[in-house]
Structures are given as structure tokens and as C-alpha cells.
Amino acid sequence: MIYIQSWGSQKTDETELNIKKYEAAFTDVDECDERSGWSSEYIKGVSQKVISVAYSPSDVALSIDNQQYGIGNLGNYKIPDGKILIDATSLALPELIHLFRMLDKGGKSFDVMYVQPTEYAESEELGLGKVKAFDLSDDGIGIQQVPPFIGYSENTMIFFFLGWEGHRLGALINSEEFDSTNMTCLIGTPPFKLGWENVSLSNNYRQLAQIKSKSRFKFAGANDPVKTYEVIKQIYRSADYEGKSLCLAPFGTKPAAIAAAQFAVNLNNVVMLYDFVKKKNKRSSGTDLLHLWEFEYIEKSDSEYG
Fold this sequence. Notes:
It is a single chain. By secondary structure, this protein is an alpha/beta fold. It folds into two domains: 2-118 and 286-297; 122-279, 3-Layer(aba) Sandwich (Rossmann fold), CATH 3.40.50. It is built from seven helices and 20 strands. It is globular and about 50 Å long.
């Protein structure tokens, strides 16, 4: 199993970019905004080798440096010796969860980095209340279970991580496969910046109104995977007590998705949902904080919750 041993943060403009710390770094080489460009330059400066990663839902496979590996045979990939870095700034949940699985099975400790943006791209103001909408992604192939974290959709407790795009929650609510009448929602509080939690609520208001009598809310820092992991553990215990399985839908911040991927790898018997949206170019501007989490591999403990 894997756990976060330490966590450091610093302003990007105060970060050393040319000290070789890692043997290899896993990333998405496409640069869609300023922070992904910054993280690309950072990775080139601190790592001996840059390795591109992409998940294909149609092939259920991970492409690593253009070589495809089915998720059942990731053990065939030779993990580089030395220290490993994963760039969560550019990689989405499916890539993160399979890299975590691969490194966990290989008994390998690793670091994860994430760069916060200064601002996100607004699209327009909607309605009489002038709700700000954000143009962050294009629709993907729709909500699906992410193998091998799959299971029966009935008799589940859904834990949905709220982001800034209400249509993503709407897709789950309107799905015929998943029952949203027993749902808990995570709100990133404190947020990256004061007031950003209100954006999550306002952009999901219509969707939440459909389930307001039945939904519950939990809170964890938007950039805090340690606290988020603990909250997931609480929801898992609650679901287990009710004889239900836990279904995670980490559509909020990337640090929260990191916690969801970590929990799924450690526990193995949760259902993971993702909608495979496509990031838009210039979806954010500027670079703010660089977060670096050190993940340590340890032998699986006797605790069922990690």
C-alpha cells in the first residue's frame, strides 16, 4: 500500500528548475495552459528522463512512451531504477490510478507534483444572478467505470467530488445506470483561493437542487489529499455499515483525485467513475503553488482501511 509521508509547497517563482532529483518523471507531454508548460520545464530540469503516459478507455490500456500495456499486464513494464516523479498537473485520474497501481505492485516509493493555477478561464455569466461559468473541458465519452475498479452499480453509495462544471454532476444524476438518491458530495474547503468554494456551489446549484433532500456534504481542503483520504475512509465505513459498496466520482480538484486514486489502490474493492472529459486549451492562467507529496510504499497493513 502507499501513503503520503511528507508534503511540501512553495511558490513556483521561488522553485529551483535545474537540480536533477529524479531518474524518471511520468507526464502528459501536451501543454494546454501556462501551468502545464511550467511543469513541463520543471520536469525537464529535475528528471533525467521524461516519460509520456496516456490511458485509452477503448483499449483499457496504458500507453507508456507510445508502448501500450493492458491494465492486467502493467507488470510487464520495467519501472526505472532510482527516484520517480508523477506529474499530476497534466495527468488525469485514469493515468494517475494506473501509475499508482503499477508502482504499488512494484513496491516502489515515488513523488507526486501538482501546480495550482492563478485563475481559471471564465466563459460567461448565466441567469439573473450572474453566475460565473467556467470553460474548462469538452465532453468526453461519458461516465464509465474505470477497470479494474468496477462493480455493480446498484446498492452503492456514491461519493461525488464537486468541481466547477455542473454538467458533470448532471450527467451522473441523469444516468440510468447509477443511483444518485444516496449520494454524498465533497466540497473543497478551504479552497485554493478564498471564495472559490462558492463557485463550486453556484455552478452545481441546479443539479444539487434535484437531490437536495437526499444529499449529504463533506469538506476537505481543495489541495489536501491527506484530509480527503480520511474523509473517503469515513464514507467507506458508513457505506460498509449500511451494507453498500463505495463508488467514488472524483470530478473535483486534482489533489482530491490523488487521494481517491490512493484509496482505491490501497483498498481494491471500491468502484471508480470517470467521464473522460477533454481539457480545453488555455483553461487556466498563471502558476501559483507547486505541491510535492512524497508517497512511500509499505507492506499492506492488517487494517482494511489503510
